[in-house]
Amino acid sequence: MFAVLPSGFPKLQFAVQNLRKISIESPPDVRALGVRLRAQYKSARASGYKGLLMSSMRKIPFAYFMDVQPCLSELESVLVNRYWSDVLPIAMQQARRSKRWYSPIFFTYCQQFHLQSRDFLDFASKALMALNLQSDDLYVQRMQRLQKDMSFFQPNRVGPILANALLESSKTMSQALEANFLWPEFVDTPMGEHTFSCALDLGPNAMMKPDLIERMLKWSRNGEQPRYPALRVQLANALLVPWHGIGAPEATKTQLVNYFVKHYRDPRLLGPGNPGHQWQGVSQKAIDTMRRWLAGDTLRGFMQILERTADSIWRYRQKFWMAYYDAGHIEEAWLVLGDEAALRARQLFTNQPSMTYGRFTGGATAQQSVLLLKMGGLVFSEWSHNGSLRAFYDRNPSAPSLYAKFYNGNELREPVSLDFHDGQNMKPQLTHAASDYGTWQRKARDFINRETGLYLGDKAITL
Q1: Please, what is the end-to-end C-alpha distance for the chain in angstroms?
Q2: How many CB atoms lie within 10 A of CB 202?
Q3: What is the pLDDT of residue 273?
Q4: Is residue 333 a contact partner of residue 322, using CB atoms and an 8 Å limit?
Q5: What's the pLDDT tens digit per position in 125-156?
Q6: Please, which residues bridge with residue 360 across strands?
Q7: Residues 6+ apart with CB under 8 A from 429
Q8: What is the pLDDT of residue 124?
Q9: pLDDT, tens digit, for every residue of 171-206?
Q10: Is 134 exposed, middle or buried (0-12, 13-18, 19+ CB in 10 A)?
Q11: Strand 369-375 to strand 221-222: parallel, antiparallel, or no bridges (unpaired)?
């Protein structure tokens, strides 16, 4: 006769649950707040802090650390001890108040993270102790879960665990942060920087994965600015050293070359006369990896320029030199261009920051170019357009120097080349004769083998 009465109030329960849901919040701007709070604490000190508002007590963490000033626990030791031992434990047991009391601790922990600070480590220890209390508050329970899953409030443990969680997540970085109850700008905090540093220390197995490389590169920048300037060296070493002496997928190599040339500049130009580079302090293995990759780009660029400036044997040169590069023998390469060749280069490589080169100031035609190579203790100068191939010991002061801005062609041709012909010709340099039959290629190959012990078969060097 009468409808069954509901056993509860579903809509009301749903509304209450929504009210109690915890959302990801960003911290307040505490720079000015900390100054005001410290002034209040100092003023209330004489009365034993009797007149201090409870809201000022709750915000104590926001005034805890201020630049080079002493820690609040040193300036207001009585107040800080009372906060940790009496006031905070009582507040944490009240579900309706515990979030408001613990969120300043959480934000301060992230924003003031400092492994070398005894005051911070003491703060972290007290923050962790405050979580040991039973609480019905969802926010506090979320903090407790962070601690359980990631040792979040243990400064010496959290970094690698959180770094791995953020890198291995299939979600975007923003989503991965949110899944770990962190706001988007967390990456810009000292704890975010520590986490990034720990990510770089996860080892080559992690840092050689294409998706993680892309994530790290995006993480490392804040727009056009480096997010963590102090980690410049660590970033380059972590992403480049694992590839030293081994081949990288072309897409990975291109991604890393473009990133580091854009943001660190070309390491081949490193020196007192070229300020602004970011390679100072980076390991030699990382720099050598970049130079090897850039040598490949330079070789390919040389061949493209030869093709477009009507060098009739560019295909044979390409086959020969790329064979040595692909075998891992070419260590460095640099290109010097005449005016027309440089114009072609600008057209070809507009969006390729890795293509840097020197220019002729004279002694060469507008179309001419020369490729300077280092391999096995030798320096080669490979001239285009019927020019000869010359070779020098790299310890010879007369050997051409790589990476200069300007060259004179006559000065490059002036030093006497090593002999490619075993004394059988008047001129020691090698002309590119009978390319179709592999004549000059075999002669150059045999010379390289004789001088360096490096050998490639006919199939590798001839068309």
Answers
A1: 98
A2: 17
A3: 66
A4: no
A5: 999 999 987 778 899 999 999 999 999 999 99
A6: 407
A7: 388, 389, 390, 417, 420
A8: 98
A9: 999 999 999 999 999 999 999 999 999 999 999 999
A10: exposed
A11: unpaired
Residue 276's pLDDT is 66
Of 23, 286, 264, which Cα lies nearest the Cα of 142?
A: 23
What's the CA gap between 99 and 139, in Å, rounded? 6
What rounded mean pLDDT belongs to the chain? 91
**CA angle (364 as vertex; 360, 368 as ends), nearest 5:** 90
CA distance 158 to 145: 13
Give the other-Cβ count within 10 Å of 89's Cβ: 15
Predicted local confidence at residue 17, as pLDDT: 43
Rounded Cα distance, 143 and 181, in Å: 9
State how far the alpha carbon of 168 is from the alpha carbons of 83, 162, 180, 388, 419, in Å: 39, 10, 13, 53, 56
Distance of CA 286 to the CA centre of its chain: 12
> 113 and 190 in contact (C-beta within 8 Å)?
yes
- Its sign, for the CA torsion 293, 299, 302, 303, is negative
At position 333, the amino acid (one-letter code) is A
Task: State the Cα–Cα distance between residues 97 and 107, nearest whole angstrom.
Answer: 17
